[in-house]
Design brief:
- The protein is mainly α and 448 residues long.
- The chain has a single domain, classed as Up-down Bundle (Growth Hormone, Chain: A), CATH 1.20.1250.
- It is 72% helix and 1% strand.
- Strands 1-2 form a two-stranded antiparallel sheet.
- The radius of gyration is 21 Å and the shape is globular.
């Protein structure tokens, strides 16, 4: 789940923090003007979309399809170990909390990698960084399947997370730079939907392949998927704008410090920390609780629990329309309220075993839907508050978002272990989301 541009307050580069806010680089976008595109091909003159040349239309569709697919495939790696964590604990004879680091190490390295790859893509170019990242994933992923110890598996997952972080800032910056304004918002929204869908699709993939062929094949097959994706993207995606060499990591870190001094942005970042903390934490908790007594759900039933959230995450593109009608702050508050209700209902359902599944399945969908519409709204608010530093402000948001993904599973399993109450972890998640909702009431109401 990455950043999105849900409204005009969000800036052109939501999620990457590195995209420029114009089409200044040589070649411009696919059809921003007549002449040559950035990859050297000839572009038709700009004009109404209906007058667009058929070849250009195919380029748009193919490029967008590639980026959305890669967004889904890359970010799914974060979530594939959620259903595999109990299996890792058994196979390596380790505590469940230790096995949870197979996911948390990935998300921590991913968060750090976002800061590094964004600046690197400014220097090396968007497409080369994306292709390199996919090829690195194609090599690293099968190696994870060969890991013979839990520490080795965790270390390789961290390397995988660092490589996976190359995609989001580069792809979102590419979309902002290469597509005309009317299309870039749509394309970034579609890429974000790919990120959001990965939260459910990754779990379904990990569970299905792990159940059928064993956990090692989850990573062997991923290697092939990433290799094919690299070939597809490398062969079909037009080259990006010329690399810029004015971004340095120390400068980026100094700007982070300046942004963190702003109280309104501090409130936004506190809210951001709860999103993936709650989302990843919820699925980690459900996996731990529902697969043991008194529920003892099998793999088919757990697949249903995981898949229930998919329709919810697909609501992310609606956030922009809702914000245009009701305002960003109200959409953010509504999304947080939905997440609070979903988590509180799950906690209540676990107290009533006879009604657990009828409550958990729809309420997990509600939480996913709430977070799906809240994320784009918060990004747009951060973009507005960030002003000229909006891209850096959103980069910091993304970093904090994945720090939450790191802490969520650890907090949930620690709570389950120390309290011996199945519902306790979900009460904790509910309290954190409720605090986020309370903080959101103090935010300004940006223009729609």
């Amino acid at each position: 789940m990455e950043a999105s541009e849900a409204s005009k307050g969000g800036g052109r580069s939501a999620g990457s923090g590195q995209a420029s806010n114009d089409k200044h680089s040589a070649g411009g976008g696919f059809l921003t003007h007549g002449g040559h595109t950035a990859d050297g091909g000839h572009a038709a003159a700009a004009g109404p979309e209906k007058a667009e040349a058929p070849a250009a239309g195919r380029t748009y569709r193919m490029s967008t399809s590639i980026l959305v697919w890669c967004a889904l495939a890359v970010v799914s790696s974060l979530y594939i170990t959620i259903p595999l964590t109990p299996l890792f604990a058994r196979q390596f004879d380790a505590p469940l909390q230790a096995a949870t680091w197979t996911g948390s190490a990935f998300s921590l390295a991913y968060a750090v990698g976002l800061l590094l790859w964004g600046t690197l893509s400014d220097r090396a170019g968007r497409k080369p960084v994306i292709v390199f990242g996919l090829l690195a994933l194609a090599v690293i992923s099968p190696l994870i399947g060969l890991a013979g110890t839990l520490p080795a598996l965790i270390a390789l997952r961290a390397v995988q997370g660092l490589a996976a972080a190359s995609f989001a800032p580069s792809a979102l910056a590419y979309a902002a730079e290469m597509y005309p304004p009317g299309r870039s918002v749509t394309v970034v929204g579609l890429i974000t939907t790919g990120f959001m869908s990965a939260g459910v699709a990754g779990q379904i993939y990990g569970s299905s392949v792990g159940e059928s062929w064993g956990w090692t094949y989850v990573f062997y097959l991923l290697g092939g998927i990433y290799l094919l994706s690299a070939v597809w993207l490398g062969g079909w995606l037009p080259g990006g704008t010329r690399p810029r060499r004015n971004e340095r990591l120390p400068d980026l870190l100094r700007q982070f410090g300046s942004l963190l001094k702003q109280k309104k942005l501090q409130a936004c970042y506190l809210i951001a920390a709860t999103f993936l903390l709650a989302f990843v934490g919820m699925y980690t908790g459900l996996e731990a609780v529902l697969t043991r007594q008194p529920f003892a759900l099998g793999s088919d039933q757990m697949l249903l629990v995981r898949a229930a959230g998919l329709p919810g995450v697909l609501l992310s593109p609606l956030a922009g329309r809702l914000a245009a009608r009701f305002g960003l702050r109200k959409v953010l508050q509504a999304g947080l309220a939905m997440a609070v209700i979903g988590l509180a209902s799950i906690a209540g359902g676990l107290m009533l075993p006879a009604f657990t599944l009828p409550i958990v399945i729809p309420m997990s969908l509600m939480l996913a839907a709430g977070i799906a519409i809240a994320i784009p709204a918060l990004i747009a608010i951060i973009g507005t508050l960030g002003g000229e530093a909006r891209a850096i402000a959103v980069t910091l948001y993304t970093f904090i978002l994945f720090i939450g993904a790191t802490l969520g599973p650890l907090a949930v399993l620690w709570t389950l272990q120390t309290t011996s109450r199945d519902y306790a972890a979900f009460v904790l998640l509910t309290a954190l989301m409720l605090a986020g909702w309370a903080v959101s009431r103090r935010l300004p109401a940006p223009d729609r």
